[in-house]
Every structure is written in C-alpha cells, then in structure tokens.
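Structure request: Histidine phosphatase superfamily, Crucibulum laeve.
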Amino acid sequence: LAPDQAKKYYPEDWDRFTKDPHAFRAPRAESYHDLSVRLEPILIELEREQEGLLITGHASVIRCLLAYLIGLPASEIPAIEIARGDLLEV
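Returned structure:
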C-alpha cells in the first residue's frame, strides 16, 4: 500500500507505525525488530567471512544488514532508503 492508502484504510495501524516504525508489526507480519533478531545468525556468519560477498534480498532485509554493518542505531533502520535495483557496497 502507498502511505496515503495506509492512512485512509488503516488509520490506527498507521498511527502506531509513525510513532515507532522499528517496532511496528502489521497483522501477520514481522517488525524490523523481529527481522533483525531473525537475521542475527546471518550477521555472525557475515562477520566471519574473509572474502567479498554479493547479497541480494528484499529491501527490509538489506536495511537491517546495512544498519548493522555500518553501525546505525536500530531506530534508524526504517529510514534507510533503498530503491529497487540499488547496488550498495560496504
């Protein structure tokens, strides 16, 4: 949904999302916090890797990985802008 549609059709959820986007969990979905916890074992493996890696994935996953790798606080994860087809090098 586009933001204007979310505001119109789900005003209570939209309000909760805007207050804390990192912790907001939509029905039958996971929050950025949930996703970060789920990615923790992968992050540990990434830190051990000696070679260069190519990681492809959903923008939410890339946001969480990027925030961790560059040291951003978790609260800033939802604000990371990633467009479809972006190539990021860390």
